[in-house]
Design goal:
The protein folds into four domains: about 100 residues, Winged helix-like DNA-binding domain superfamily/Winged helix DNA-binding domain (Arc Repressor Mutant, subunit A); about 35 residues, no CATH class; about 110 residues, Rossmann fold (3-Layer(aba) Sandwich), CATH 3.40.50; about 120 residues, Serine Threonine Protein Phosphatase 5, Tetratricopeptide repeat (Alpha Horseshoe), CATH 1.25.40. About 50% of the residues lie in helices and about 15% in strands. Strands 9, 10, 11, 12, 13 and 14 form a six-stranded mixed sheet that branches. Strand 1 and strand 2 form a beta hairpin. The radius of gyration is 27 Å and the shape is elongated.
Length: about 425
């Protein structure tokens, strides 16, 4: 957190003023009741507008170590009271934004209200600064070069690896977890298409779902340079995603953005996110990679939801879940017959039943399941030859035709170098 050179006295944001001298919060000039803890949290956030204030920093400043209180519950309650006073919300914040597992950020414009004597003194100081700048220009000072030297990142090493941590479900509805987890997997898949990046698999990332581990610790455990984290809110057929990039070595916030789209445009949004992240970390994309990340189309919302539910079930690898996954995948292709990922899902589900059927009478006859898996895989590749997962599905049914299977796997890896299943 930056060092403060001079404490502010009155800070204005929206219709509010926080008077640090009087210990008051005013709205439209009238005093508004705010308890001590929410006041102190607000003051700390306003001292660092636009910056992340971590939960640990809040604890150190506001809840000293000898305070006998459940800090996490205490902070959550304090933030709730603060938002209630400001008329703010976590789902659509105007003032205080929640950064999952990290902390909070004040996102509204902030203006410092200065006393008259201070304003006069500042005008004199400004005049002196302008005079110095004019003299510097007359003497040929290369201000542009100086600026570049001052603001160049020190120790800036290339970013070559990342992990997409499980996105947070902001709806509070457990029945939407499958959708949020599916968004995590989809973003991981899209970023995996970038050859210059090593992207940690969904399976490895999911172990951190709900964890309170610090990001630098996660970065060390997974050996990654940056972490992508965020939250998803699905309301009807509108989708809101907040994402941010954090450098693990320094726990430094690099970039954040919020997107809101219709659900049918989620595939386009996923590719847009991947392209933006690649730009932010200055990864060079090949022409093929740029093309693959710019060719997504809209998808039927019900087909997408059915597909994500199918993947959620398939990942459980049980008899009952494999049956459910087939039901969901087939529902997706009925809604959208040209949806290649759903055909790949059908192939994967039947292939699972084929393998397990050889060992249990509870599953479909192995040969019947195998034929259905092969038909679906061929359909997926036909519909979208650029879909890495479709080539993995086809390789699975060609597994004992070694050369053909290897060719499909090599193609899958070329399309998505971080496809763990292909490797």
């Amino acid at each position: 957190m930056p060092v403060l050179h001079r404490p502010r006295e009155v800070i204005r944001f929206g219709p509010f003023e926080l008077d640090l001298r009087a210990g008051e919060l005013r709205k439209h000039g009238r005093k508004t009741r705010l308890q001590q803890q929410p006041f102190r949290v607000l003051a700390l956030l306003l001292e660092h507008p636009g910056e992340v204030v971590t939960r640990e920093e809040l604890r150190q400043v506001i809840w000293p170590a000898d305070t006998f209180v459940d800090f996490h519950e205490g902070l959550d309650a304090t933030i709730y009271k603060l938002r209630n006073t400001l008329g703010d919300s976590s789902e659509n914040p105007r003032f205080v934004e929640t950064l999952p597992r990290r902390g909070y950020r004040f996102i509204a414009a902030v203006e410092e209200v200065l006393p008259k004597t201070t304003r006069a003194r500042n005008l004199l100081t400004l005049a002196g600064v302008l005079t110095a700048v004019v003299l510097a220009l007359l003497f040929g000072l290369n201000l542009a070069g100086t600026r570049d030297r001052l603001f160049r990142r020190t120790g800036n090493r290339p970013i070559r690896s990342l992990v997409v941590l499980p996105l947070q479900n902001l709806s509070g509805d457990p029945s939407q977890e499958y959708f949020v987890d599916g968004m995590t997997e989809a973003l991981t898949t899209d970023l995996g298409k970038i050859g210059a990046l090593r992207v940690i698999s969904r399976t490895s990332a999911m172990q951190y779902k709900g964890t309170r581990k610090a990001l630098p610790e996660i970065g060390r455990e997974l050996n990654v340079d940056v972490v992508v984290e965020g939250a998803v809110l699905l309301s009807g057929e509108r989708l809101r995603i907040t994402t941010q990039l954090v450098e693990t070595s320094s726990d430094r916030h690099l970039w954040a953005e919020t997107y809101e789209r219709d659900l049918r445009d989620v595939l386009v949004l996923q590719d847009e996110l991947a392209l933006t992240i690649a730009k932010q970390i200055q990864v060079k994309l090949s022409v093929d990679e740029q093309t693959r990340l710019a060719t997504a189309h809209s998808v039927d919302a019900e087909a997408l939801e059915a597909y994500l539910q199918g993947r959620e079930e398939w990942n459980k690898w049980t008899e009952e879940s494999s049956k459910k996954s087939i039901k969901y995948f087939e529902q997706a292709v009925r809604k959208n017959p040209a949806y290649a990922p759903a055909w790949a899902g059908i192939s994967d589900a039947y292939m699972l039943r084929h393998i397990l059927g050889a060992y249990s009478q509870a599953f479909s006859p192995p040969q019947e399941a195998f034929q259905k898996a092969k038909t679906a895989a061929l359909k997926a590749v036909e519909l979208d030859p650029s879909l890495s997962e479709a080539h993995v599905s086809l390789a699975s049914v060609l597994l004992f035709q070694w050369t053909a299977a290897e060719e499909e796997l090599q193609r899958a890896i070329a399309l998505n170098p971080s496809n763990a299943m292909a490797h």
